[in-house]
Amino acid sequence: MKRIIRTLCAAAMVVTLAACGGGGDGGEPAPQQAPSSESESTAPANSLEEIIQRAQADFVETSQKLLDEQEKVFSEVGDGYEDYLANIDMIQAWYELSISETEALGERAVEYGREYYKAVVDNVDVTDDRELDKATEEFYDTVYEDAYDDYYDAIYEDAYDEMYDTYYDGIIHDAYDTTPYDEWSDTSSDAYEAYSDARSDVYEAISDGRSDVYSDYSDVRSAFYSNDFDVEGIFAPVQTNEGGKESDAAEPVADSSEDGAVDASAVDPTFKETMDGYEAFFGEYVEFMRAYEADPTSVELIGQYSDLMTRYTETINALGEIDEDSLTPADAAYYAEVTARIYEMLAEVGQ
Known about the structure:
Blueprint: H1 2-19, H2 37-41, H3 48-77, H4 81-86, H5 88-123, H6 129-174, H7 181-225, H8 231-234, E1 238-240, E2 246-248, H9 269-294, H10 299-320, H11 329-350
Antiparallel strand pairs: 1-2
Helix pairs in contact: 1-10, 1-11, 3-5, 3-6, 5-6, 5-7, 6-7, 7-11, 9-10, 9-11
């Protein structure tokens, strides 16, 4: 659990650093290796391991497909300015492919997750809280964290850095002295806009995909802690009743309070205090980021960033003192509730 908390905190700090400026240093992306067929064949079909292997392979294969297509673009477009002008459509087609493939990958990641959680119920002793937690968290660790991190590095970082270095900062930059300025300026602006828009769309697709995977993970954990193991019901689509209000197709997960929140009286006071402090920190963080977006040159806000990092360190230290094995079902349910709210706050900042 602490690994998840640290991931959320790290994500917030990445958003802050990105807002303050930054970028990649380029470099050629290393080819990714898909899981071997021998490894895939050792896991029984529809087992937990087999589902995870399919998800991992999908991420690697999608990434490699985009890198292979990128190499074709580099080869076919050529190295000269006139070659670039004649093949702009080919470059744009790769941008569009990277967006559509990333969006489709996100949809498949959700499908893998839901298939996996059903398999958890079928293959794990749901009365063993520790084994249930371990199995549920395995998909989060391998897909939300590892697979998406690798994909982000390979495509959003490395592949797009290659496009930037090759065309905008390469061929077009080199044509400055040999091309009429008005023509060069328009070409340069168009190239950067196409690159920037596509990269932003890929980032949004990755962010949305991860958000969906995390949302399912959080919903499942909350339901499991409430002894609700109807996975299909958990993910049932929202229906509209005759009055026009939304209602879940499935029966709501049982809770110990009328408003659906975890009964705070059942949560360990020390644990609750720590989690409440953690949530309060991110509430302040969101307000800080909104203010910074409105006035990124504010000296006062830049000075507050140091205090924000101090609070970050204090929060992590407090969380590090929690004994994961000592959490009761009520503590774990409260944890899931708080982290879900925190993730929603971070998603607002990232929009």
